[in-house]
């Protein structure tokens, strides 16, 4: 088990030294990874995507962290809905149609933001799934 001419104490001391070097390297790599994650999170906060519905009459803007930034409903959406209603129209139907458009736009923006998030985090992790490692705040993982 021990090399010829070495004492067990010397071997154990060398192992402790190697373990310290290994732990220092692990700490260095962890710090680099945390820095990359922080940079990715900042980029995700700054990058936005836009989902739309109804030919663009409803738009939803979301950032890469899937936070809602803006919802825009063009006036022609309301004009179109009220024109369809006419004198005998049902306001409930118009509200449901508008809700459907908003829902579709949100889902479109969410899908784009999720894709952006996954792509960026995959770059950071080198394609590895880090979800179970207990690293803090890994959006998308």
Give the radius of gyration.
Answer: 27 Å
Q: What is the CATH topology assignment?
A: Ybab, Chain: A
Based on DSSP secondary structure assignment, what is the total number of beta strands?
Answer: 3
Distance between the termini: 43 Å
Shape: rod-shaped
- What is the name of the CATH architecture? 2-Layer Sandwich
CATH superfamily: Nucleoid-associated protein YbaB-like domain
The largest sheet, given as strand count, sense and whether it forms a barrel, is:
3 strands, antiparallel
Brief overview:
This protein has three helices and three strands; from the N terminus they run αβββαα.
Describe the structure.
The chain is an alpha+beta fold and 141 residues long. Helices cover 60% and strands 13% of the residues. The chain contains 3 helices and 3 strands; from the N terminus they run αβββαα. The chain has helices at residues 8-46, 75-85, 91-125, and strands at 48-53, 58-63, 68-73. A 3-stranded antiparallel β-sheet has the order 1-2-3. Strand 2 (58-63) and strand 3 (68-73) form a beta hairpin. The longest helix has 39 residues, at 8-46. It is rod-shaped. Residues 136-141 have low confidence and may be disordered.
Topology:
Layout: H1 8-46, E1 48-53, E2 58-63, E3 68-73, H2 75-85, H3 91-125
Antiparallel strand pairs: 1-2, 2-3
Helix pairs in contact: 1-3, 2-3
Descriptors:
3 strands, 13% strand, alpha+beta, three-stranded antiparallel β-sheet, disordered C terminus, Ybab, Chain: A, 3 helices, 141 residues
